[in-house]
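Can anyone check this?
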Amino acid sequence: MALDLTGKTALITGASSGIGVEFAKAFARRGARLVLVARRKDRLDAVAAAIRAESGVDVAVVVQDLSTPNSAAELEAKLRSTRTQVDVLINNAGFGTNARFVDEDRYRVRDEISLNVAALVDLTAAFLPGMIARDFGVVVNVASTASFQPVPGMAVYAATKAFVRSFTEAVWGEIESPNVRVFAVNPGATQSEFFEVAGGKPSIGMAPTVDVITATMRQIDARGSKPSVVVGGRNSFMSWMSARLPAKAVIRTAGKMFLPPKH
């Protein structure tokens, strides 16, 4: 049975493209009001206008770079100033870099960790207590199949997503009410701007963004949520295998897929 989200407010980060846009459309179809957050105002405005025209729901736009210090607290303050109650939090914002670690821009890596980890944790800390107090809410933290093994060539990204999955699963274990759902969703390579931003190319086919949304909404509607879900049967099998094969073999295989050649 689908969870009734009519009139609830869904806060979606990274909402200007890819998976974030599809999340916004999905929650709008379920009757939720939207708060869309990203850096690019022109894209956010375009997404918001299209959703308003299609679904007729209220859509608010907040331009915020969540990789900067204290940005999550600033976003929280903006929403409190408008008395916006967040019922659903989709921590989707994040990016990766595809290079040998010694060749990385250390400041870009710092922003990667700030966005993928610090902002996600801070936003969860900001809005989860209210959900628990009201005995209703959803927190979805977007991790990755990269969280299941170290990935040479994407060392920092994989580490941040391992943190996201571990953190989220632990918080899931702390939730006592079935009416508050907290879980991580782990997509594989997905049709989005991810690899364009990362500066690399996937060595495997990319799945449609709708697969991520379908897996997430199924979990939101489930009677008993899991701490973490993997998107796609192939990805589920590969993630299962990563925990059972020798670490050297797993790391070398990942490196063959994502490690760039030496300069």
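Reply from J.R.: I decoded it. Residues 106-134 form the longest helix (29 residues).
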